Every structure is written in C-alpha cells, then in structure tokens.
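Anyone? Bumping this.
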Amino acid sequence: MDGFLKIASDIPHIAAGAWITLTLTAVAMAIGIVSGLVLVFVRLSRVPVLSQVAIAWIEFFLLTPPLIHIIWAYYVLPIVTGWRLDAITVCALALSASVGAHMAEVFRAGLQSIPKTQHRAADVLGLSVIDKYRFIILPQTLRVILAPSTNVLVSLLKDTSLAAVIGLGEILHRAEVTASSNFLFLEILTFVAILYAVLNYPLILLARRLERRSLRGFASV
Amino acid sequence: MNRDAGKRPFVRLRGVHKRFGDLQVLQGVDLEVARGEVVVLIGRSGSGKSTLLNCVALLEDIEAGTIEVDEAVISCGPDDLAALAPKTRRAEVAAEIGMVFQSFNLFPHLTVLQNITLAPRRVRRMSSEEADTLALRLLDRVGLREKANEYPVKLSGGQQQRVAIARALAMNPQVMLFDEVTSALDPELVGEVLKVMRQLAQEGMTMLVVTHEMRFAREVADRVIFMDQGEIMEDSPPGVMFTNPSTEEAACFLRVLMDAEAAE
C-alpha cells in the first residue's frame, strides 16, 4: 500500500497523457469511420480493379499488427522515402488505417445483414439509391453495427498505448519513464490499467444507450 | 370488370426469357393485361409466376423479349434495346407499378405512417402534411387508422400486409402486383387481406395476382393463367379454368389443389 501512496505525486503527470490518448483515439476513429465507409462502398461496388484494391487494403491492415505500422512508418519510411513524420502523425495514421479496415468489415457485415427484401421494397416504391440507403438501409445498419463499432473504439483507445514505442508522451510512455526512475512498476502500471478502464467505461455506457434507442421498432421496448 | 377491352393492353409481355444461372425460369412468356383487368397466375412453385411479377416490377432484368407498361417498353433483352423507352419515361412508368410481397417487407425502423409517407414525400415531392393526409386516408381504407403511429413489429401479419398494400397505393399505382401476399399469414388473417384486394379489384385497379387462394381467383379474376416450367400453358376465364381446363397439366394441378382444399 505504501507504494501507491508514493506514486500519488506522479499521477497528475501520467494522467495528463490522457489528452494525447484521447486525441489520438478521436482522430483515428474519425478518419477510420470515413475511410471504412469509403472502403466498404468501393469494395461492394464491384468496380473491377478498384474493388480488388479495396479488398487488398482492408486485408493488409486486418492481418498485420498496428505496432509494426507505427515502427515502420517512424523508422523505415524516412530511410526509404526521405519523409520524416512526427510521432503523433505516425500514430494517428497507423491507427486510422487499422480502424478503417476494421470498420469496413463492420460496415460490410451490417449492410449485408439487411435482408434483400428491404432493398426490393424500397426499389419498388421508386426510391433513388441515395434515398434508399439514407432512409432504409443505413438506419437499420446502424442498429446492427453499434455493438461491434464500440468494440473497435474500445480496442483503439487501448491500442493508442502502442505509441509509447516511439516515445510519444501518452499515458503508457509517461508511466514507463516515471517507473524507470522510481522503480514502482507494479504500482504505476496498475494505476495505468485502471486509468484506461476509466477512460473506456463511458464509451461502453454510451453504446448501451444508443443501442437501446435504436431498438425502437425491433423489440417490445 | 374488364372495362377497357379492345384498347391497347396496359401491360404487355412479349417473348420474355429469364434465366438464373443454368435454370431457365421464363421461356418466352407472352401476356397481355388490359386496364382494369384482374389476372390471377397459378401454378406449382418454381413455375415462374413470382419471377414474372419481379420482371414486371423491374426487380429482375430479362434475357430476351420486351415488357411494356402504359405504352412504354420498360425492360427488354439485349436484342431489343432499340425499343426501350427513354430513362425518364421508364422511371415515370416504374412509379405506376405497385407491388406487395409475401413477406410484407415493411420498414421495421419506421412507424406505419412513416412507412406509407416516405415514398410520396421523397419520390412525389409531397409536403409532409399532404403525405400524412393521404396516408391516413389509405389507412382508413384498409381499416388501420388507429395503428398509424405503431411500429410494424406490433402488428399482426394481416395488419402488416394491409399496411404494405396502403404503402403501395400511396404512390397512386396504375397496376398492382401481388406476390403470394396471403401465403405467410395464419389462416384466420387471410380474409382481411383478401377483402382489401377484392375492394381494389372492384374499384377497377389493374391487378396481376400470384396466389393459391382458388376461391379468390374464382370470384375476382377476369382471367386465370396457369404456368408450368416457365411457360403459360393455359389462359382462361375462371369459369373455364376451374371447371373444364383445356390442358392436362392444369387439370392435374387443380385436382391436387381441390383435393387439398376438400381435405381441410
């Protein structure tokens, strides 16, 4: 218990890293959602070549760890191309690419879960393709993808800790630096785990609320 | 009920072929339906009845032949592209075709009222007041005004199907396609849907109906068409079809059906 009292003075410094954690999460989620939507529509469009490129892109980022992308973009890219990106840009881009691939798969599962008969009903009424997606398909898809999207978001928040490997001052990096000077690894890393849980918990609550709201018309609520 | 006999047919299919992979579903169907006529399609499952409706509703492309509605060719095989009506005219005509499905296909996330008003507002550019008034009038007609603000899940199958009919009618269609609309219903709910359809027929709606309700066919149809293996085998008035069909296939199909009805 002593140890935990001793780290009290370190807590504000470590917790301040949450700003970077949250910023990275927000940026990667925003870019990830938009790129995921683009990827899934290109993929499902079945336009030759473009559609295959989208599939290859999605699968590459699904099958390879974001940690590698971060290290590669930070250390290898400058050697190969001469471009040097700062640590936060590297992390934002690498995490966005990973989230984009995951969201594309979430969107695809969602879109494909809407029965073909819903498309037919909308087509027969003469709705344009845009109106069909806007009023019929996407609202129903949203309901289906809320839970898996939350999972992606929660994983993303945790994955921002990967930024520590290139020395970006988010929560984990600050914790490691602090712990290596006072050797209170157990206490500091325990605190960091709790901090991630605290940051993530509101996301789960929000998702539950949205899910309840979107159930209207589907179950007796 | 065949009021405009002699005029150019409102719906005209010529040599329509449709294939799913290796399976030839429609093999050269010719069919003409006059304005105000009620045509009932019967036949075994897999005989091509539903596919025929889907082709007329433009839910399926066809491999050969032409489909004409209201004097415009709206669908054709690659050999008849020259006959195809201009795109705007096709869209116009497509909006005149209403369809009701076996599985209702209401939009589950929208209320009954929203289900009906969406297309009039988005496609016909009605104001929401106009669309609401129209929808309530149609709900009155199918006896469901009090359900306007419910979600479809709260309705029985028969009620959902009546809403689906109201939704199709809201687009003021000139022809209505009914694809086995009572097949998914519990027996005690079939009557309320047929009643609405009977009323529509009496009002002079042009209707193409795929059904297994032989009593309905007998009472309401102007013509009954028997399909087998993607072809129209027989096209007779109900009086003839049900008492003295001219083809052995139709006679055999009807015998089985009558026996089943008698056994109930």
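Late reply, but here is one note on the structure posted above: The two ends of chain B are 31 Å apart (CA to CA).
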